[in-house]
Recover the amino acids of this structure.
């Protein structure tokens, strides 16, 4: 299951199926989405942590046994396209997201971490996109987000070889922001979250929109959304609405 808890302006989404190293089923994908939808509407929450239950794994990707018998159409519609939609929604949420990684962070697990803004990891973590070893390919945007984060050459090395990367190498490559001893991983994530929480939430959220827009993620829509909020508070917008209500021609001042 995927759970959501909230306290002191922060929320924690936990991928919690430790007996299977937090492998994701379709049902868990939709639980994840339900929590994202909840957080999109909760203006009290200022940071979201995404983590894995148990101490062996953040997430080892999609449940191999669950998709092994899928037809091509089922794979396309229910696994890949739905995963894209749900993790794009995670990436686009206004609130900053921190992936807190321990143990195995493989396949779809790494792709979820890549959809978060910040990655804080235990120093004994292993990361990989091992899909080609199974005869498939990274399907939840690993081919897109990984090169965007670490550059095409390193992403190609990880994807072509499927080899595991240590926390030390991941930090050096910029794949994770920080690695800390396992026992202090959660404390460090909360410390970063607390610092963000103390800052002005809307200012933080606007910077997220601008940074992601600058990298070409729905740039026009993000500009439109921010500019709509700005335009709403101009004198001209007040005058426009007043003129509509008073059935007269507007007299704009450019303020
Ligand atoms: N899907 C479904 N089940 C998985 C899984 C996955 N992606 N990864 C691990 N599991 C299950 C195992 O089948 C096992 O279940 P069982 O106890 O009922 O047999 C349980 O999780 C524990 O894993 P196990 O393989 O016994 O642990 P390990 O320490 O020997 O190995 C890994 C750990 C992560 C190296 C190994 O499980 C692995 O390679 N998993 C696949 C990772 C992968 O390829 N992910 C991409 C998927 S698209």
């Amino acid at each position: 299951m995927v759970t959501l808890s909230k306290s002191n302006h922060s929320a924690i989404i936990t991928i919690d199926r430790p007996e299977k190293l937090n492998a994701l089923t379709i049902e868990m994908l939709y639980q994840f989405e339900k929590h994202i939808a909840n957080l999109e509407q909760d203006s009290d929450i200022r940071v979201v942590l995404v983590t894995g239950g148990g101490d062996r794994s953040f997430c080892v990707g999609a449940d191999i046994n669950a998709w092994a018998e899928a037809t091509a159409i089922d794979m396309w519609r229910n696994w890949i396209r739905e995963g894209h939609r749900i993790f794009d929604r995670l990436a686009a949420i206004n609130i900053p997201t921190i992936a807190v990684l321990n143990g195995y962070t493989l396949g779809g697990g790494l792709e979820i971490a890549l959809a978060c803004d910040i990655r804080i990891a235990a120093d004994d973590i292993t990361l990989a996109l091992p899909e080609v070893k199974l005869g498939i390919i990274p399907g939840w945007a690993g081919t897109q987000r990984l090169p965007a984060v670490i550059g095409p050459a390193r992403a190609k090395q990880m994807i072509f070889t499927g080899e595991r990367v240590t926390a030390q190498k991941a930090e050096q490559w910029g794949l994770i922001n920080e690695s800390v001893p396992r026992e202090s991983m959660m404390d460090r994530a909360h410390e970063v979250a607390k610092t963000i929480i103390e800052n002005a939430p809307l200012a933080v959220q606007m910077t997220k929109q601008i940074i992601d827009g600058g990298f070409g993620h729905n740039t026009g829509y993000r500009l439109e959304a921010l500019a709509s909020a700005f335009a709403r508070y101009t004198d001209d917008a007040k005058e426009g609405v007043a003129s509509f209500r008073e059935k007269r021609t507007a007299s704009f001042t450019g303020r």
Summary: Residues 201-246 form one domain.
